[in-house]
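Take a protein:
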Amino acid sequence: PSPMAMQHMWKTREDLTSRRGAFSERERGQGDYCPVCWRVKGDLVLCDDSEDLRHMVEFGDKYYVGCSPECCRTLLSEAPNYVLGDPPLPPSLPKRLSPAAAAVVPTDALEYKGYCAVTFKQGPPAGQPIQAALLKPDPAGQDPLHMAEYEGKTFRMLSADKLELFMRRPHEYSQLTLPVKLPFDKVQAKVDELPLVGYLEETVVKSMQVALVDIGRRRPRFPGTGNKVSALVYLSLWLRANNPLNSRGEGERRAALLAEYTATCELLTRDAGELATQLSVDQILPSP
């Protein structure tokens, strides 16, 4: 074997194309697979194209490509162990779909009902049911679609990293069986079209949870009012002070009102504590 780096200066494009080895799928628009990764790990790794041919090796009047400098050095030292023998590649190979091609694939044509095969194969987090591993991309998200075709089926993944894992070992993810009970699909809906309860859940429920925890911790009691009224007033002031739509000036004004109300509510507790330290037990308890 001999390295091909910089030999593009006297090699024609036709010669480089016609003399590709058995690990090349350029005729089907795929590219060159790394023989080392396939023979050692069983991974289908497509090699990046380089104009200087720095990872290309010539052996037996054929050209082979390594996916990295390490694989290229391995080919130079032990090429027969990796490029000879049958079959060089599996009969079925995955094909990555472009964003434009993935955008026109109908949802009902996706394998596993559109769930990510890699996430399902990896399994759910510890202590959670298998349904926790059944995930689909967010329908309202702006990320590009990550799809691949394999054995006449179309698979959709959650991310580019998941798609890369699928492209390396598609046979591990193409024969899975979904559970009988599947999670409900997320339905994209406009917030202003939801009923009142749904509207509150989508808009202020998180802020309400934080505010209620704060009320339980402080237990505000405004002089002259009951616990219920004091808590409701505190809740309204807290929500207004922490409204993310407030301007800077409005937010400071609302925060000052909340701080003033909180300080007033603490008068009873503070005064009762100071009074208890000033009086002796005999002064506080009635005489027999």
